[in-house]
Design brief:
By secondary structure, this protein is of the alpha/beta class. The strands form two sheets. The protein has a seven-stranded mixed β-sheet, with helices on both faces. Helix 5 packs parallel to helix 6. The N and C termini lie far apart (about 50 Å). The chain binds ligand P1T. The site of ligand P1T has 19 residues, from helix 3 and helix 4.
């Protein structure tokens, strides 16, 4: 099955046999518990909705199908998915190598929770150069954590190369595929062991559900993560599972329009006198444009840019927009814009932020699926009001 077909049908084949109701859309099973006739025989394999729920199960099949994975798991948030993966793979005194440009919440989880509370050692490296990952590996390294493209600087790393380096010493590679979406990048096919997503973003796509996902093909590891998900209780509700399954059906269509708009707007900004830099992997000027073309099947709808005039100009510009909402999050049908230094990455220490390149002039854009001309007109009028 090709992507668009799996996105519509996986996990939702109508049951036409006796006892089935022929629903073409998975029902929302709200029951928190499931009755059984015999003590040792759960009905249909279901016991209690934290351990398993038919609506969540349908979504999990769809999640696996769109990442070409054997298994999928649906979590209550992206960070719940990340936490469960980390607590499955890490023990006290273990070491993690991570890309230095990551979502601020992921840095907070590793830096302030796993490092401070559980003695996990952390090395942040610029993974644009795979040799930096190699140099940071220790005998105690138990996982390599990557985003590609990264949040918020839209940097890429060579997933295949890094997976080769890490696997040489038996270390698994986890890729947060949120920015690319499963439509534009398949990290498992590039050698990654586990993919994580914030389904809050492109996968659900309508800014009306917070959720997370883990996709992988190793059965032993899947069973361990599933066990810990149930132990920790980090599950997606039946209603959210329905919403996410519905969102996935239009993922391919949405991603094409996100990309079309992002490319047009990135080109517009690149030639704007009030913009000093645009970071979008679809632009030939992006230093990793060649890697993007090799590793991704498209460039997605996320980019960031630096406005001339620093934080003052950034704030004035952001206040002047009418169509773009000034808000955290990304990947919804509506265009969102934000200031990473004071919003999504405020929990990262200023010195660390600036070392990576998240300046006060940086603005991050999640381009929606609206009309391209309307979006460019809104940016134009906001530039007009900056007066810088
Ligand atoms: O918000 P949550 O569903 O828990 O997902 C966390 C997360 C994980 N990974 C990436 C790459 C992310 O961007 C996020 C969440 N990011 C935002 C809310 C944001 O505006 O960047």
């Amino acid at each position: 099955m090709k992507f668009e077909t799996a996105a519509v049908h996986a996990g939702e084949e109508p049951v036409l046999t006796a006892g089935g109701s022929g629903d073409v859309v998975v029902p929302i099973h709200l029951s928190s518990t499931f009755a059984r006739r015999d003590v040792a025989k759960p009905t249909g394999g279901y016991e209690y909705s934290r351990s398993g729920n038919p609506t969540r199960g349908a979504l999990e099949q769809k999640l696996a199908a769109i990442e070409n994975a054997r298994f999928g798991l649906a979590f209550s948030s992206g960070l719940a998915a990340e936490t469960t993966v980390a607590l499955t793979l890490l023990k006290k005194d273990d070491h993690v190598v991570a890309f230095d440009d990551l979502y601020g919440g992921t840095r907070r989880l590793f830096g302030h929770v796993f490092q401070e509370n559980f003695g996990i050692a952390l090395s942040y490296v610029d993974a644009r150069d795979a040799e930096n990952v190699k140099a940071a590996l220790r005998d105690t390294t138990r996982l390599v954590w990557l985003e590609s493209p990264t949040n918020p600087l839209i940097r890429l790393c060579d997933i295949r190369k890094i997976a080769g380096i890490a696997h040489n010493v038996g270390v698994p590679v986890i890729v947060d595929n949120t920015f690319a979406s499963p439509y534009f990048q398949h990290p498992l096919a590039l050698g990654a062991d586990i993919v994580v997503h914030s389904t809050t973003k492109y996968i659900n796509g309508h800014s009306d559900s917070v959720g997370g996902a883990v996709m992988l093909s190793d059965e032993t590891l899947y069973r361990k993560i599933r066990y810990n998900q149930n132990a920790a209780g980090a599950i997606l509700s039946p209603f959210d599972s329905f919403l996410v399954a519905r969102g996935i059906k239009t993922l391919a269509l949405r991603m094409e329009q996100h990309q079309k708009n992002a490319l047009a707007i990135a080109r517009y900004l690149e030639s704007h006198k009030k913009v000093s830099a645009v970071y979008y992997p679809g632009l030939p000027s992006h230093p990793q444009h060649a890697l993007a073309k090799k590793q991704m099947e498209g460039f997605s709808g996320m980019f960031s840019f630096e406005i001339r005039g620093g934080k003052r100009a950034a704030c004035r510009f952001l206040r002047s927009l009418r169509l773009f909402s000034l808000a955290e999050s990304l990947g919804g049908v509506e265009s969102l814009i934000e200031h990473p230094a004071t919003m999504t990455h405020a929990s990262v220490l200023k010195a660390e932020r600036e070392k990576v390149g998240v300046t006060d002039a940086l603005i991050r854009v999640s381009v929606g699926i609206e009309n391209t001309g309307d979006l460019i007109a809104d940016l134009g009028q906001a530039f007009g009001e900056t007066g810088s």
